[in-house]
Amino acid sequence: MEQTRVFNALNTTVSQETLRYDSCGRVERKRVQLTQEGQLLDDSTTSFSYTFGGKMSQVIYPKSDRSGFPAVCYQYDELERVVAIGSPQAPQLYQSFRWAPDDNPLSGTLNAGLQEQDFTYYSPGWLQANTEPQAHQGFEENILSRYDDGKVQKVESRFSGESAQGLNTTVSVSYDELNRVTQALCQQQNLWDLRNVTYDPNGNTLSRIAGGQPQQLSYVPGSDKIASLSGAESADWDFTYTASGAVKTVSRSETADRSSLTFDYVAGSLQVASISLSADDKQLQFAYGNKGLRVMKQLIAGDRQITRRIYLFGLDAQPLSEVVGNDVTHYVYGPQGLVAFFCEGQRYAVIKDHLGSVRLVQDSQGLAVAQFTYDSFGRLVGSIGNTGLLRYRYTGQEWDEETGLYNYRARFYSPLTGTFYAVDPKNETASPYLYTSNDPFDYTDPTGESLLGDIFSWIGQVLISTLEIVAAVALDVVTDGAAIATPLSGALLGAGLSTAAAEVGAAAQHKSLSWADFGENQAVGAVSGAFTSGVGSLARARAMPWERWCRALSKAGVNAVKAANFVTRVGVEAVGSTLGAVTGKMVENGINGNNVALG
């Protein structure tokens, strides 16, 4: 079966996808045709193979016939965890894993085994260290976390090799009562410090010392929109906005390569159609395809095209290949994101920190070719080597050098301000421009809209699990373990405990349990709980009067409602810093008649 989808990708560009499915309904072939003004720009095909259990086993990349890039193969253990990523000839060419029972990686290799990795954890499962015992040009990270909630207190980042010693950092982090970062002090280089951060009630930054420079931020009256930023990169910056609250212009007080940016948006959308660069009278133009993903970026000077980059995606939101003229770059991904890329006939390995930020690029011989160090909110403060090899950097996001912004898919992010340039599409924070609720050491925002979505998803799953446990106990108590109630309470208890254990493990790793995994844990727990609780109990069912059944179910319902109130309170307290800010903004806007979404 085939399905064709057409997307009006902007700037006279059209993206057409044709998907072919196998007998199990899985995509086995994806063809993308990109046209501009009726002219075919690109026609590429990606092929997929699967294991018997439905896991991706092989991907034949688009343009691989041109570049000579071999198929990427995935191998799994009996629990369907990735244990090897490689090629048909070298199964562990890119990465390998050894897993702990709680699904945390214990060790692994990168770069055809040249780079070893060992992972250690605190008892709740929080990452403590990522070490590389035998690397002569590698990267290691040690993390000190608070014992009660896992918040990062200190991060020690070390590069091996004499030339990179100036990039080593030991950063100590302090938070306020709402878990917002107030200081991040670098032991080696105080110019990389973040100091004395102050916030308004909505979490907007008012002042700070960053890069050794005092900075002041002012806001459009009655809103969360930054009007001006003084002291950043020895300059003053001014901002204007569209009616929907997205940044319209950014201007700098002195002449520089990025002295002024003007944004044009797709009507009724946060998607940027173009950015005009006043410094050199050029314009960036963008086109988007399925799920709003960027499929083209081109730099124009007048009527002349300077460069055009075409993005080719698989079934996820990460590009598999990019085409610039006759050059093709391929990207390889694993459970922790980008692990390698292939360009100009050369293979490179990528080593990241706990946030997924790229810190080191190695060639196929294990030699460092590029190294990166960032400040608290992602500004590149130190680098060595050929950094232009890779544009995916801070938290793994695409760096647009022309604008100084990161492409977080749903929105552009500025490491200079530490905020997004458009409002949160999901309206999840008091100020719709905040990045990670001002805690960039513990959280990331992979799509530009997902931080609190994960948190509220976690609360919902924990709420369901806790209700099941409480209802099971209540049902068992009020029925005196009656025969019919016992398997039911066992199923509830099994489902609740199984999912709660999985949630604890996921939270310990600073990630959320997918709803698919949630359902799987519910099913396994319910079946096992019902089976173990129900054996031998049917004979007692006849002795229980119908009236007692009604009273039992009524009491169980009351207890479930009480449990809901309790868990809701616990959940609110667990994310109190954010929910408190959201509630405060809602109250304020209710009084003043303002709209949270528009700042």
Automatic annotation (TrEMBL):
Domain Teneurin-like YD-shell: 167-424
Regions annotated as coiled coil: none
InterPro entries (alphabetical): Rhs_assc_core, T6SS_VgrG/RHS, TEN-like_YD-shell
Keywords, in A-Z order: Repeat
Keyword match Repeat: yes
Pfam families the UniProt entry points to: TEN_YD-shell (PF25023)
Name used for this protein in its record: Cell wall-associated polypeptide CWBP200
Species assigned in the record: Raoultella terrigena
Gene that produces this protein: wapA
